[in-house]
Amino acid sequence: MGGLFDRLQDELDARDNKKGLSPVDLLDMPEELTEVVNQIIRKNGMRLEEIAQHLNQSEEEAKKNLKLLVEKGYVREVQVKQEIWYKAQFGRKADKVVSDNIWSKLDSVFNDEED
Amino acid sequence: MSKIISIHSFRGGTGKSNTTANVAAILAAQGLRVGVIDTDIQSPGIHVLFGFSEDEMQHSLNDYLWGKCNIEDAAYEVTNSLGGNISGNIYLIPSSIKAGEIARVLREGYDVGLLNDGFHELVEALDLDVLMIDTHPGLNEETLLSVAISDALAVIMRPDQQDYQGTSVTVEVARKLNVPRLVIVVNKTPLVYDFNQVRSQVESLYSAEVAAVMPHSDEMMALASAGVFVLRYPDHEMTRLYKQIAQKLMS
């Protein structure tokens, strides 16, 4: 599994170091991580056990993905009644003007699919 | 289990808010508790369909996003003012229609995380069966968030070449965001068109289910957003089609 995590790490490292998650990020995140973040947003927070179950992974594997996301500032750990929950860490402000890079991200999404 | 449904279109004027209001009314008439949130902060309008005036709006979604109130404080029950036979409930969460407040959102932005929390808190606080999100046309932060958290998404389009292209963008984004249920509604279809042909063309183009091909309707135009169509015209063909859309979104 080292290869997969190395690739995810590289892909995340190549991204701009932004303050928190923007919904636009979901468009060009590695697919494995999009699924994790998407579920966390949809449920408004999940426990490790639930995430692993949803992704059909071991808790150890799921934890590695979550660690990447926490380090990158897209997800944060929150303690709720002595349990750790993972919640999306959105950027503080969303510019109402469409982000400069939204169209290039869409381009890359579509180009990737054509390739 | 509660459901979040987004109604979106890539371009404006497709009938997005009308579809949202009518589907909401149908679901409420089936006894469900339905929330309708207007995330079209730049150009809000769905409150008009529910007969909700600016004077009644003590708090809005904008106030919640600026930390001035809880999200449920910006929710107004509009069920009784709609008329018709509704055994459930409809709660409207409007966006502000004050020019200064719209300008402030455009200038300062808002906390996206708070919007996401608000969606979930609404479902819980109002014990909703369904939360319907009326989005801003095109793609921006709140649209992407709304699509990402939705259990079902209806993309509204007209049989117009510009809409065809824009809809493909929305459909691709929805697929990228793994929306569990995606349907397309073709709206305002000229009566001279072959509806079966339009349906198969759209289904083949997007590889997605068409929930309904809605005809252009003079009655809808004449109503001019002064009410919710399905409650005014319960036996109309359009009402049957709105019921079909509601059923497809809930299935």
User: Structural class of chain B, please?
Assistant: alpha/beta
Poorly predicted ranges of chain A: none
The first-level CATH class of chain A is given as Mainly Alpha
CATH class of chain B: Alpha Beta
Unreliable residue stretches of chain B: none
Radius of gyration of chain A: 15 Å
Short recap of the structure:
The complex is a heterodimer of chains A (115) and B (251). Chain A is of the alpha+beta class.
Description:
The complex is a heterodimer of chains A (115) and B (251). In chain A, strand 2 (75-80) and strand 3 (83-88) form a beta hairpin. Chain A has helices at 2-13, 31-43, 48-55, 59-72, 102-114, and strands spanning 46-47, 75-80, 83-88. Chain A has a single domain (2-114), classed as Arc Repressor Mutant, subunit A, CATH 1.10.10. Helices cover 52% and strands 12% of the residues of chain A. Chain A has 115 residues and is an alpha+beta fold. Chain B has helices spanning 16-29, 46-49, 61-65, 99-108, 112-125, 141-149, 161-176, 195-206, 218-223, 229-232, 237-250; strands spanning 3-8, 33-38, 76-77, 89-93, 130-134, 152-157, 181-189, 209-215. The longest helix of chain B has 16 residues, at 161-176. Chain B contains eleven helices and eight strands. Helix content of chain B is 43%, strand content 18%. In chain B, helix 1 (16-29) crosses helix 11 (237-250). The model of chain B has no long low-confidence stretch (mean pLDDT 94). Chain B has a single domain, classed as 3-Layer(aba) Sandwich (Rossmann fold). Chain B has 251 residues and is α/β, with parallel strands linked by helices. Chain A binds chain B through residues 20, 22-24, 26-27, 34-35, 38, 41-42, 44, 88-99, 102, 106, 109-110, 113, and chain B through 41-42, 105-113, 116-117, 119-120, 138-142, 144-145, 148-149, 169, 172-173, 176-178.
